[in-house]
Every structure is written in C-alpha cells, then in structure tokens.
Specification:
CATH class of the largest domain: Alpha Beta
CATH topology of the largest domain: Beta-lactamase
CATH superfamily of the largest domain: DD-peptidase/beta-lactamase superfamily
Region (Disordered): 908-951
InterPro entries: Beta-lactam/transpept-like (IPR012338), Glyco_trans_51 (IPR001264), Glycosyltr_51/Transpeptidase (IPR050396), Ig-like_fold (IPR013783), Lysozyme-like_dom_sf (IPR023346), PBP_transglycosylase (IPR036950), PCN-bd_Tpept (IPR001460)
Number of helices: 28
Structural class: alpha+beta
Distance between the termini: 199 Å
Helix content: 25-40%
Domain Glycosyl transferase family: 97-282
Strand order of the largest sheet: 2-1-6-14-15
CATH architecture of the largest domain: 3-Layer(aba) Sandwich
Transmembrane segments: 34-62
Biased composition (Basic and acidic residues): 911-938
Amino acid sequence: MNQEKQGWKKRLSSLLSFFTNKKTVKSARITYNVVWNLILLLIIVMVIGAGFAGGAAAGYFASLVKDEPIRSYEQMKKDIYNYEETSDLYFDNDVYLGKLRTDLYREEVKLEDVSQYLIDAVVATEDEYFYEHEGVVPKAILRAVFQEVTNSATQTGGSTLTQQLIKNQILTNEVSFERKAKEILLALRLEKFFDKEEILEAYLNVSTFGRNASGNNIAGVQAAAEGIFGTDVKDLSLPQAAFIAGLPQSPFGYTPFSNDKGKLKENLEPGLTRMKTVLSRMYTGGVITKAEYDEAVAYDITQDFLKEAESGNTIDEYPYLTFEIEKRAVDILAYILAEQDGYEKNDLDADENLKGEYLALADRNLRQNGYSVHTTINKDIYEKMQDVTANFDLYGRDKPEEVINPETGEKETIMEPVELGAILIENQTGKIISFVGGRYFDREQINHATTAKRQNGSTMKPLLVYAPAMELGTLQPGSVLPDVEAYLDPSAPGKVWPHNYDRSYSGLTSARYALTRSYNVPAIIAYKNILNQRPTTFLEKMGFTSLSESDHVNPSAAIGSISGVTVEENVNAYGTFANGGKFVDAYMIDKIVDKEGNIVFEHKVEPVDVFSPQTAYLTVDMMRDVINRGTATSLHNRLKFSSDWAGKTGTGHNYYDSWFVATNPNVTFGVWNGYDTQKPLDRNYKGVSYGARNIYLWADLMNAAYDVDPKLVDPEKRFEMPGGIVRRSYCGASGLLPSQACSDAGLVQADYYNAKFVPSKVDDSLASSRYVEIGGKKYFALDSTPSEFIESGGVTIDPSYMESILGHKIKNPAQLIPSRGAWSNILVADSKLAENGRTPAALGISVSDKKISWKAHPDKDIIGYRIYQDGKKVGTFKGDSNLTYNAGYGSFYVTAIDIAGNESAPSNVIKIEEEKPKEPEKPKNPDKPKEDDKPKEPETDETSSNDNSGN
C-alpha cells in the first residue's frame, strides 16, 4: 500500500516539475494565447453567422406574410365564427320539417354542452399541449419545415388546434411555406385575442366528421353525435367520444357510413383502430384511468351505430316543398341584403345582373348561417294532398313525346303523363296552407303550382271581364249580352270567332247566365266594351306578374288566351272576391329567424283595394250558379261536405288545360290539369269528361283537407251581402226596366244590382206584332196579308236595337232569339217572308173517301189555303201542314194565298154527289105467289130510302 502511494507521489512530482519548468511555461503561454484567440475568433464567426442567418430567416418570413392583412379582433372573430351552420325548416305552428338542402350538415353547440369525454379525447389526440402553448409548437414547425425541405412523402403541416382552426376558417388547406408562415402569424394573434375555451368551441363546431347514417356529409360535434349515434353531444359515452374524436384526421376514411344512403361500410376496422388510438392517448395523457381504458377498448362500439335513419335531406320526402321554401327564402334575403347596401327593391327588379349577385349572396347566406325558416304549410293537409295525388286514377292516358337524349343526341320517344298543380290559400291572411307541385318530381323538376305558366281559359272571365265591367259600371248580372255566331276577331274580320266550347249558341242571355254556362261570345263582347279602359290593370293589382304587352290589348285575353299564369297567381286572385274586393298576396315564408333568435324577416299582410264590396259580392253570387246549375255541377257528386262555394271552370285552347278554381268565406282552392308539352287532354277517359275529372280531383284534394281541418275549409258562415245591393226586375231582351210589351211576352226577370248601376230606362226594344207561321217559323205579316192568316199577340225586337247590339258582325240575327221558354213569341227584324211578285199558280187536289187533300204549293211565299164548296169559302188552312179536308156533298176547289194576299186560280174541281139507292133484285124463276104472300100496298106516297151513307 505504501509502495503504491510512493509511486503516485513520484508521478505527481514529475508532472508538477513539467509545468514549473521555464521552457514548458513559456511554450504553454504561447499555446494558450493561440487557442484562446482561435476560440474567440470562432465565437465571433458564429455570432456573425447566426446574425446573418437570423436576419435572412426573418426576412424570408416577412416576405411570406407581407400580403397578409393585419386583422383586428372583430375581423378575426367574424372569420373564426363564420362557419356554415345548416338552416332548419318548419311547417306551420313550428312543426319541424327538416334541414335545408345542403352539401354539409352542421349544428352549432356551446362548449358547456359538450361531453367532457369528447373534449379530453380531442385535446389528447389532436393537440396534447393545447393548454400550454400560445398558438404554435416550435418542434411541430421545425418538423413541417424539415418535411418541406426534404420533400418528404409525409406532409403533416401544423398540429395545434389553433393552427387547424386558422387553416379551416381563414386560410386554405395547401401545404406550403407561405401558408405555414401566415398560419403561425395568425395563430399567435388568435391566441392573444381569444381564450382557450373559445378556440376549442370554435374548433369543435368547425371540424368535419365524415357522414351520418343518412349518408349526408356532417360537420360539428353535435351533428356527429346525432348522425352517428343518435344522441346529444353532451350525452356521449367514453367509447363514443373517442370514436368521434378520431374522425377529423380522415373523416371519410374512418366514418362508418357510406355515401349510399348511409349504409354501414363492410370494413369498419380503420375507424375502430383509430378509436383505440384515441383511447390510448387519453390514457397516457392521464385523462382516463386504466380501468376506464380497458372497459372502453373492450366495448363493441358498432352496436351504437345508427342502423337506419330518416334522411336529413328534406328533398327525399318533400322535394317540391323544399325547393319552393329555398327559392322564396333566398328571394327574401336577397332584398334584405340589398337594402342593407342601400338598394331598393325596384333597383334589383330593374337590373338582372345586380339581382343575380344578391341572389347568390342570399343563397350562400341561407345555407351557412343556421336560420330557422318558418312556413305557412299545414303538414297534415300537405301530406294528405300528396297521397290523393298519388292515388287518383282519372288523370287520363300517358301520351308520347319526342325528345333529344342529352347523352346520345339522338331523338327518342318517351311517354308523358298528365300533370297537375294545385294550391290552397287562406283568404284573409294569404297563407298558402298547402299545394301540390306535380306528380313526378324526378321526371321534371317543375313546380306546376307556383312556377309553370299556362293559359287559364274561362277562369279568366270573372277576373278580367265580369268583375271589372261591373266595377266600371258597364255591366251587371242582369245585363243582356248576345251569344251568337259573330265576327269578333280583329285579325280575321271574315272569320266566325270565338266559338263556345260546345259550338252551340244561346242567343240573348243575361251576364249571369253567360258566366254560369261559360259562353265565350258574351265574354268577348263585354270585354271589348271596356278594353279602352285597360282592364288588365285589375289583374296587375291582383298579383299577375307575367302579362305581355299583347295580353293588354288582345280581346282573346278575356277567355284566358294569354301568355301564361301560374296556378298560384290565378287562385290568389280569386281570393279577392272572398275578401270583399281586397287583394291579399299569398305567401309561404312566415318568418326567418337567425341562430341568435333575432327575427330577420316576418311577413306582413298588406291588403290592396281592387273592387268595391258590391262588385266582389255580385261576382261571388254569379259564380255560385256555376256550381249549382252550371259547368261545375258534378262537384256535388264528389265533395263530402257542403259550403258556400263560388267558382269557375276553365278550358285552355284545344283542350290543353283544364281548370277549376273555387272560393268560400275562408279559403280559395284551385287545380290545373294538363301535359307539360301542349297536348289535348282526353275528352273522355273511363267514361268521365275532362272537366269532370278535374273537378273530381279538386273535390278529392279538398276532402283530404277537410279530414284534417274541417273548420278551416268548411266554415259555417256564408258570404255576406254588403249594403248598396238591390234586387230589381229587368227585361230579358235588353236588360232595361220591363215595358208592357216585355211583360206581355213573359220576358220579365229579376237579379241583384249594385245600387249605383240599376237600370233607369224602360225597355223600348220590344213591340207587339202580327205574324204568320209556316213550318213552325214566324214571319211578319204585311199590310195586305189577309187577316184570317194572321196571328196576334206576338212581340218583335226593334230593328234599331238589333243593330245596336252588334250590327253587321252577327252572322245570323235569328240566332239572337233563344229557343227556350217565352222567347218562342219573339220575332227578329229579319223574320220576313219575301213575296215573289206573282200570283200563285193553281193547285191540284184529289179526293179519297170524301177527304180532299193536296200538296204544299211550291212557292215559298204561300201562307195558307182557302177551301171552296159550291163557290162559297168554307174553310181556311194556315201554313203548309195537315193539308186534308173532310168534305160533304158538292163541288170543291182549293186556292193558295201568298204573303201579299194574292190568291191563285181555283184548283181542279172535285164533285162529291149523294149516292142513289140500288133497285132490289128480281127472282130468276119466281114461284107463283100464294094469295096470302102478295105484297101489301103502301099506306102513303112513295118515299126515298132512309140510307144516309155518303153524307
């Protein structure tokens, strides 16, 4: 031991002597100075290099973010919380309809309403340093830079939740130095403006989570919880929370549902493996215990997946309704947005480009901002009407239509069905209670109730002819109009136009009866009487928006031959009559509420004065007759309830369209039938006419509404007659006050009038007349016409009155006289039998069994015949029927008499004599008579036989 110590001492002494040696010290001093200088130089170089590197890096970073604006707190708040949230749609009375049609379904949720399991799972998985960092993690940034420089196959980008939020809401998803630099800058800035809870809440609402059980794309943890597990996000279990937290890394790779209507994928392993990864990170992060981890890993999460879910896409169940709500809501929001920018509604309506811009903004606004859109549609009535539409079996045949195949460019023939449009509107409010957009939405996405425009046929008559004419004082229900063949087409003066639907004519008729029977000629005449006062302005007041310039001037508009009108516009206008002459515009969007509960829009009822209450009531009363005794009587066979209905049928050109619109004190309902491309409807199908089929459909749909809400569609009240209406008698020949001649003819009638427009002049169109009758026709007698052939008590129409009606435009004036009732005694100015200017030729007569007969004289002016016996006139025959006379004994002849009183020469004479008695026959070989058998002598003189045969 001592020897070892002695050895260490010698070595230490030797070492010390080396350092104390002068040469050694001098050499060491030189070496130290060199080394120290070298170290100092190296430090200086490193500092200078670092400065240059840092400056270059800082300059490079600055160049990358130079175009990024410095955002304020308000700007960043707006951007971060401006995530798309799906809007909700509602039926009337806040009955939930579904989500607005969108590519991404999202629901906003507050952080306090999120399961703690889910919060812990997201933080542990996506950003374990979330609560420590200030927006970025340096090592994550270095990793991203290294991957970019080395062109690594794996590009992870930023990893913090703050950076992901910036990427999703402000920047793009590209992986580049420029975006990464901006992301860092904005993340740091965001962390200064917002606390961790606000950032986390925004992230949970922004992130996408694949698909739900309906196959819809979803975003936000609330939509994920509901769409995958059918539960609220606050009620998620640990395994459920872990599964959802794992989805954002690869939403469509890990989602359990396919895009095929949400069917479960065959391979669920990727999502299950990812869930276990999340649970592992939660355990290693200390947010769950080992027991919780083991239990969650062992849990079969697939049993919680929704197996079947109703589609959140309202198009599947309510296609027509969904699109209609969207369109109307977008229109409303477009005007609101434009108004916020200082524009007025007229500015947008006058500038298509400007309106298009705001419509696009409104559409995006509606789909992103989580509005609640409340409508007027009654869910139960709407669904019942769709059922009736699907099951009705009297539409008519499908008909072929040639189309171009968009894929091949080739012509092909398809079968086109009869379509329909129907709409039910509440009168006083304008609420659209229900509608039917069509039969087959998938075939052609046209809403036949609100969008498709068709000619409205005779349903136009009350709107454009009778109500305006009554309002302007030119017509009342008792006004008399001619229904005859006439030349009323200004473009074809020599052509008879218009025709009635059945090609028959009724002569002079009241306005009431003309509307009841839907005659076209009276409607055209009444319309032409007011055409210079531009009656189409009444239509515009009642919401018609598609009238062309020609519609304002063409007489054919009176019978519905216009450029087109929607079912909604047509039905909406009829509600004016039920509202006492006030038009209330129909609407479907009741209100729009933003996600903060603020009412963005709420509909206001704004009535427009169109007609007086008297005009409205008289029109309603006339249309009652259409249903009770006119073209819509078949309604009574089908409608299950009775109400005070007033309505009108209509037929489009060539039977392309069939209409029925009717109103009662509560609601107005109308139905249209026709093909999308113009084709005539089957006049008869399964034994039912086209008009009756449409009325049956109207009744079936209304019966469905009655089953849901009888008080709405079948009110106990009736239309109330306003003041200012009186009942007056009028002459059926002219519409004026009855004269004695009118009374004698039996043509006095009565109707209701606006007290302002009752007739004040006594009828002077009729006068007593003498006439002759031949072949059932009556002709005026001449002054020289023998009185024995003249009938008295007839009534004639004054020729000047006839001229005042239509003059030369009437094809056959005789058509003015109806072939019904008391009109049989009325003669028209042209009822004259022309005298041929010559004496009638003699007749030929014959006799058979003492009956003298002859044929009618060939001349057309013969009014009758005289019978002569032995030179004396014994009989007169009027007309040319029953030309037989039972004669006695004597000489007979017949003469013909013409209208001028000229008598023909006698016919051949026929003599009918009394027959002489026959002598008794003598026996050929008589036996000699006995004495007792001899004839006795007569007691008196000879007398003639008592045989009176032949008398």
